[in-house]
Specification:
This protein has helices spanning about 30-40, 55-60, 65, 80-95, 105-110, 115-135, 155-170, 205-235; strands at about 50-55, 70-75, 100-105, 140, 175-180. Strand 4 (about 140), helix 7 (about 155-170) and strand 5 form a beta-alpha-beta unit. It has 8 helices and 5 strands, in the order H-E-H-H-E-H-E-H-H-E-H-E-H.
Length: about 240
């Protein structure tokens, strides 16, 4: 049987605003500045896939082994909401030129009371903001994944996911993609598998991330191929 490995959480996040749709990205200034300082000291290589999101990305410490042979960079800001990430995401990628940006956020918005429409609007704004910095990058939304702690919110999470999916499909833009790895965290009965979560029953364990990566690896490979083809077509015009 797989054993969930607990990981220590950092100090409590700054106080959140009371409403799910309120953006207060200044709460995360210190975390963002840390990424910027690191990039100045060691500029990141161009290309690859960059994961932007909240703590499910920040705590994913096995990216190198989960995605061997791929340039996968994690840019997680623990506790942030998608509505906040939408405003500071360009700063997270400013020092690099990722081919693909995968956004994994939204569960904190739903938990704070955000509606599906607010989650969809936040992602749309994130896309607009990132396009100003990286007009040719592929941007993918990684569906809000289930967890034991927030299982009672699953219907609201799925509605939020479908709202984002509808936005992406309506855009008819090959540089926008919707991906879903939720199955990685579910057992044979379709409920969250305890082995996939650390002791807080919210964040993925090493095993949970291993399973998530197994679902994502072929998808990531496809995203990189498509991005290269799009870039080649654009260069030929």
């Amino acid at each position: 049987a797989c054993v969930a490995i607990a990981r220590a959480e950092p100090a409590a996040a700054p106080a959140a605003p009371p409403t799910g749709g309120t953006a207060t990205p200044e709460r995360w200034e210190s975390a963002i500045a840390d990424f910027e300082a690191r990039d100045r000291e060691q500029p990141p290589a161009p290309g690859g896939i960059w994961l932007l999101g909240s703590s499910n990305i920040r705590l994913w410490n096995t990216l190198a082994t989960d995605f061997p042979g791929m340039h996968v960079e994690g840019r997680g800001v623990g506790g942030c909401r998608l509505v906040e990430l939408a405003d500071f995401a360009p700063r997270l990628v400013a020092a690099g030129s990722p081919s693909v940006i995968v956004v994994s956020a939204g569960t904190n918005d739903v938990n704070a009371g955000a509606t599906a429409a607010e989650v969809g609007d936040a992602f749309a704004r994130l896309v607009t903001n990132l396009r100003e910095t990286l007009p040719d990058a592929t941007i993918a939304f990684l569906a809000i994944a289930p967890s034991i702690k927030r299982w009672e919110q699953i219907d609201r999470q799925r509605t939020a996911n479908e709202t984002v999916r509808a936005f992406i499909e309506a855009a008819h833009d090959p540089r926008l993609r919707y991906i879903d790895a939720s199955e990685a965290f579910l057992d044979a009965d379709g409920r969250p598998d305890r082995a996939c979560f650390v002791d807080d029953l919210l964040h993925p364990s090493v095993e949970g991330n291993r399973r998530r990566a197994a679902v994502l690896r072929p998808i990531f490979a496809d995203l990189l191929r498509a991005s290269a083809e799009n870039a080649s077509a654009a260069g030929a015009r």
